[in-house]
């Protein structure tokens, strides 16, 4: 069959079904993606590192196995974010310090995907070390939004989101500390899910028991995300907080028909300004749960200590993990990285004790909240996709933001309390830019989250909006 452009519009589950019946081969998928990338990725720059030779060798090896031994993914190509290592492939972390780094081994999630029959065809772009919430770096350049190339894809999983939206991947890996899966998904009109800590194994690093950072799935619809999470999830002793796989698949959970009895909507969680248009679109989307008989009320937990708590925890993590880079290569680090590390180095033990005590209180308040509400909905981002030249959002709805992390407080709140959350496409701004609704469930309730998200996805009728051809509004260049 070779290159077949019609495959681009199919879902990941449809492609896997064709692979399992033998109607297509992994090589057909790779030929199709290579042609699509050549045709559309230039002005977007979602997948700056390609590894099709490696992918075809993997496809050759997979096809030597009987169909029953080709794994859950059966030869489906997958894009991996450039913060994760893939053996034999360039991994830059978006940093000039690693511009020529070729990985000698793969991270656990990559091993897991390849053992499940996934084939890695590309690395997706990310900001330097994943920081900054806007996908540009001095090694691989800027990623632009397929819906309007003058706008950002946010970050840090911006390359993955843009690849899904423009049809250069059916599934794309992302990671999330403060919203790095959810915000790019919102800006690109796809689905990005933050699982509970430990659901997807991460490489052991320091701090060894960190739980703010997670790996997770991105796709164009809820069922594909659930299926991808099944492929990613497995207990791995190398990750000290790794969780065992549930007895029921996440795809089965998404398709279970479970629906919430009562949900809450909050435009701002009481902690952040929000663009009025975004708030209105998301509120209307959340209230459409009522069409399925769900009670919808406006409510949120008390998150009054959230900014201080997350700020301390994030800074501590940067100081612990990046202190040596600041000491030896300060001049090569972008300002946001330096700021994060130095903020962490200035912390006292009293600061850390306060943050940990507050985090525990926030966590218990969140659990109590979910005793009343099955799900909580908020905007996934407080503003629509903004100009790509802007490093971050400096003000919103007349409120000045004092540092670059505050604009994604709407998502980092749920990282802090270990919730599972996803961004679901829920509408479009006046400028025809995607808006995402963040749907949140209690920790380790991924199946309920997916079932609830699928219910609303069916009601909203926006599934199939992507992929799109890039809407080129400006000659590509680098962000400031």
Task: Give a verbal description of the structure.
α9 (276-287) links the parallel β11 and β12 (295-298). This protein has one domain (5-460): Amidase signature (AS) enzymes. By secondary structure, it is α+β, with helices and mostly antiparallel strands. α10 (306-329) crosses α12 (349-372). The chain has helices at 12-21, 26-40, 52-63, 108-115, 158-166, 182-188, 222-232, 250-254, 276-287, 306-329, 335-345, 349-372, 409-416, 446-460, and strands at 49-50, 77-81, 119-124, 136-137, 141-142, 144-145, 148-152, 172-176, 191-194, 214-219, 262-265, 295-298, 375-379, 395-396, 399-400, 420-428, 434-441.
Task: Give me the count of strands.
Answer: 17
In CATH terms, the superfamily is Amidase signature (AS) domain
**What about the largest sheet?**
8 strands, mixed
- How far apart, in Å, are the first and last alpha carbons? 43 Å
Oligomer state of the chains in this structure: single chain
Helix/strand-derived class? alpha+beta
Q: Evaluate the radius of gyration.
A: 21 Å
- CATH topology annotation: Amidase signature (AS) enzymes
Could you say which overall geometry the principal axes of the C-alpha atoms support?
globular
Q: Mean pLDDT, as a whole number?
A: 96
């Amino acid at each position: 069959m070779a290159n077949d452009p019609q495959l681009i519009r199919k879902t990941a589950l449809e492609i896997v079904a064709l692979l399992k019946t033998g109607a297509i081969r992994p090589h057909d998928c790779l030929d199709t993606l290579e042609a699509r990338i050549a045709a559309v990725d230039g002005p977007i720059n979602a997948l700056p590192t390609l590894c099709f030779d490696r992918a075809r060798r993997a496809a050759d090896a997979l096809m030597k196995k009987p169909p029953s031994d080709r794994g859950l993914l059966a030869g489906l190509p997958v894009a991996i974010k450039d913060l994760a290592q893939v053996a034999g492939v360039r991994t830059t972390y978006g940093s000039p310090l690693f511009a020529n780094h070729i990985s000698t081994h793969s991270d656990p999630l990559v091993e897991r995907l390849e053992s499940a029959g996934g084939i890695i065809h590309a690395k997706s772009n990310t900001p330097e070390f994943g920081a900054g919430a806007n996908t540009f770096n001095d090694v691989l350049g800027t990623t632009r939004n397929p819906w309007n190339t003058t706008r950002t894809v946010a970050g840090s999983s911006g390359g993955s989101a843009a690849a899904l939206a423009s049809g250069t991947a059916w599934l794309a890996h992302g990671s999330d500390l403060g919203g790095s899966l959810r915000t790019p998904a919102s800006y690109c009109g796809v689905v990005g899910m933050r699982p509970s800590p430990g659901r997807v194994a991460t490489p052991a690093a320091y701090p060894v028991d960190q739980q703010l950072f997670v790996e997770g799935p991105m796709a164009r619809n809820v069922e594909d995300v659930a299926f991808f999470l099944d492929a990613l999830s497995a207990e791995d002793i190398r990750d000290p907080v790794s969780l065992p796989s549930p007895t029921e698949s996440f795809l089965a959970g998404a398709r279970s028909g479970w629906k919430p009895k009562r949900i809450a909507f909050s435009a701002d969680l009481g902690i952040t300004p929000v663009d009025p248009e975004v708030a209105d679109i998301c509120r209307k989307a959340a209230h459409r749960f009522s069409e399925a008989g769900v009670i919808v009320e406006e409510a949120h937990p008390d998150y009054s200590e959230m900014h201080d708590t997350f700020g301390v925890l994030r800074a501590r993590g940067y100081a612990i993990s990046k202190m040596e880079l600041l000491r030896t290569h300060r001049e090569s680090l972008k300002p946001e990285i330096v700021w994060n590390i130095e903020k962490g180095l200035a912390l006292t033990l009293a600061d850390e004790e306060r943050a940990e005590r507050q985090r525990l209180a926030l966590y218990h308040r969140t659990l109590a909240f979910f005793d009343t509400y099955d799900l909580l909905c908020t905007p996934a981002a407080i503003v629509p996709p903004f100009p790509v030249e802007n490093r971050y959002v400096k003000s919103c709805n007349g409120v000045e933001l004092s540092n670059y992390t505050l604009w994604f407080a709407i998502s980092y709140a749920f990282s802090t309390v270990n919730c599972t959350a996803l961004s679901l496409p829920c509408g479009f701004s006046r400028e025809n830019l995607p808006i995402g609704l963040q749907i949140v469930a209690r920790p380790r309730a991924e199946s309920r989250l997916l079932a609830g998200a699928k219910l609303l996805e069916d009601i909203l009728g926006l599934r199939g909006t992507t992929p799109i051809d890039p809407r080129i509004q400006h000659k590509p260049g680098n962000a400031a």
